[in-house]
Amino acid sequence: MDSLSRSIINPIFIVVNTSLYMYNEGFVTSLLTEQIMDVRVKNAFLRMGKSGKHLFDLLTFSQERTLSILVVIVGLTTGISAYIFKQLIDGVHHLCCSSELSSLIFSGHWYRVILPAVGGLLTGLIIHNFALDAGGHGISRVIYSLKRLGGRIRSRVAVAKSLTSAFTIGTGGSAGPEGPIIQIGASVGSTFGQWFHLPTHYMKTLVAAGAAGGFSAVFNAPIAAVIFSMEILLGDFSSQAFSMVVIASVISSVTSHVLLGDEIFLPTPSFGIEHQGELGLYFLLGILSVPLARLFIKTQFFSEELFKKFKQIPKPIRPMIGGLLVGVFGLFIPMILGSGHHEIMSVVSTGDDSIRWTFSFLLILALGKMVSTALTLGSGGSGGTLTPCLFIGATMGTLFANVARLVFPNIAPSGAYALVGMGTFFAAVVHAPFTAIIMMFEITHDYRIVIPLMFSVTIAMLMSRQIGAIGMDAMVLLKKGIRLEGKTTHDPLKDVTAGEVMAKEIETVNETMTMEKLSQFMEHSPHTGFPVVDTEGALSGMIIYSDVHHAIDDGLDPKAVPIQQIMRKEIPTAFTEEDLGTVVRRMQEFDVDRISIVDPDHPKRLIGLITRTNIIAAYQPTASH
C-alpha cells in the first residue's frame, strides 16, 4: 500500500475503530479521557505524527475539562428548563383562569376554591406515583442530596417537579417558582454527572452549578445565584467550585434572557434615604423581621406535622385538602393566591398612593400569605418559599413604614421599606445574608438600597444568632440528622463512606419467626443482632439478643410469639454515600451497635450492614494518617 493510500485509510480506520470502541465500552455516556482511552487507539493516533497527536489531544479530556464542558451544557439546559417551566405555569394558569374553557366550566368566584384543590390532587397523584422527591419546596432536598447522597438526584425529579409545581402554582396554590427551578437545575446537573460517571466532588459541583443556573434564571440575578449556591448549598467558597458555578449561572441567565426577553423580576422606582437618622428605623425593621421569620418557619412545620397526623387520609389526597383550604382563604383574600409576584410589585410601587394599604389590610395580607403557604406546602404541594418570603417581607416593610410615618412624616416612601423588608425577611428565614443583599441589589438595579439593606440584614442576623435561631432549610435537615450551622471539628471518619466499610453478606431473620427459633438461630451465628425483613424481603425492623431475653422475662411464650411483636421498629438506617461519622452519630442517637444500609430509591431495600467492628476497622487506618 502506497503512502498516499495509507494516509487516507489510516484516519478513517482510526475514526471507525474509535467509534466502535466507544460504543462497545459505553462511551455513549462517558467522555474520552486519557486515562480510559484504549492503548491501541492511542498508539494509532500517535503513529499519524504531529497531526495525530493534535487530534488525540483534541479528543481526550481531563476530568477538569470534562467538568468545564458539562457545566456549560448544564447552564444552557437549565436556562431552557426555566423557560419551559415558566411556560408551564403560565399555561396552566391561562387554561384555568383566562381561557374560554375555564369561563364555560367555572362561574362566579367559587372557582378560586375549586382550582387549588384540583391542582393539589394532580400534584399528589404525580408525586406519590412517580417521584416522592418532587414534593415540598425543594431546596432542603438539594442540600440533603449533597450531604447524604453524594449529589445524586434522580433524573425523573426534574420532570415531576416541573409538572407538580406548575399544577400547584398555576391553579392558585400559594408557593413560588424559585424552589422548584433550583431543584430542577440541580437534578439536571446531577443527571449529567451520573451519565458521565463523575466522582462525587465533581458531581456536587455540577449539582450546585445547576441550582445556581435555576436561581439565576428565575430571579435574573446571576451574582446572587452564585452566592446562594456557595453559601447555602455547598457551604464553602472553594475556587474550583466557585468558577464552575459562575459559568453555569451566567450561561443560564443569558439563555433565559434570550428566551424570555428583558424581563426584570421586580421593576421598581428609585428609592433612597431621606435622612441619615432613618438608619434607626432600619435597625428596628431588622429586629422586627426575626420574630416574624420564626413565626413563618414554625407555621410551615406546624402545617406539615398537622397533615402527617391524619394518617387515615391517603397521601395523594392531602395536597387536595390543603389546596381546598387555600381556596377558601383566597375567596376572601384573592391576593394570597399563586406566587404573589405581581402583588409584590403592586405593594412596592403603590404603597403610598393606594388607599388599599391600610394597617389592618397589610397585616391580614402578611398573615394570610403565611398561612396559605403553610397549607399549600405542608399538605404536600410543590413549590418554593422564597417568593412568599419576599411577599411577606414587602408587606411587613410597608406596614412598618406606614406606622413610622405617623411619628416621622418626612421619611422615605413606603416602597423603600418594602424593598429592605423583602431582603431582611428573606435573610432571616433562609439565613443567607450575602445572598439577600446581592439579590435585592440585582433585582432593583439601585445601589442606594445596599446601605440600609446591609444594616437591616446584619441586625437581623445578629439577633438570630443571639437567640439561637437557625434557617428554615437548616431546621428541616436537622430533623434528619444533618447539622448545617455551627462550628465543627474535623472528624477523620468523614473521609470514609458507609458503602466502603459495610458488610454486604447479611444474615437476616423473618418477622414471622418465633422467639424460640430465633434463639436457636443465634446459637449458630457469631452475631447478636439481625435485621428483620417481612415476607417480601423488605426491611421492617431490628432484633437483638437482649430483646428476646427481656421478652422471656416478661412472661411471653417463646414458642408462640413471633419476633414481629418484640422487634425494634424505629431503627436507624443510612445510605452508602453517607460518611461514617454521620453513621456513628446516628447509632449513638438510637443507642444501637449496628445500622442497616438501604437503597436511597427504595428505603426498605437492605443492601448492607455496619457494626461497631466495621467502624473500628475503618477508624484505625484512618486515624493513623
Number of strands: 6
Structural class: mainly alpha
Report the CATH topology name of the largest domain: Clc chloride channel
Count structural domains.
4
Can you count the helices?
26
Global geometry: globular
Question: CATH superfamily of the largest domain, please?
Answer: Clc chloride channel
Q: Outline the low-pLDDT stretches.
A: 3-39, 100-107, 486-490, 621-625
The largest beta-sheet arranges its strands as: 1-2-3
Q: In which range does the helix fraction lie?
A: 55-70%
CATH class of the largest domain: Mainly Alpha
Structural description of this entry:
- With 625 residues, the protein is mainly α.
- The chain is 63% helix and 5% strand.
- It contains 26 helices and six strands.
- It has helices at residues 3-24, 39-46, 50-59, 63-98, 100-105, 111-129, 139-148, 156-170, 178-195, 200-219, 222-234, 239-260, 279-309, 318-332, 341-350, 359-378, 386-407, 414-430, 433-444, 450-467, 472-478, 498-501, 515-523, 545-553, 580-590, 612-623; strands at 509-510, 529-533, 539-544, 573-574, 594-599, 602-611.
- Strand 2 (529-533) and strand 3 (539-544) form a beta hairpin.
- Residues 3-39, 100-107, 486-490 and 621-625 have low confidence and may be disordered.
Compact description:
The protein is mainly α. The chain has helices at 3-24, 39-46, 50-59, 63-98, 100-105, 111-129, 139-148, 156-170, 178-195, 200-219, 222-234, 239-260, 279-309, 318-332, 341-350, 359-378, 386-407, 414-430, 433-444, 450-467, 472-478, 498-501, 515-523, 545-553, 580-590, 612-623, and strands at 509-510, 529-533, 539-544, 573-574, 594-599, 602-611.
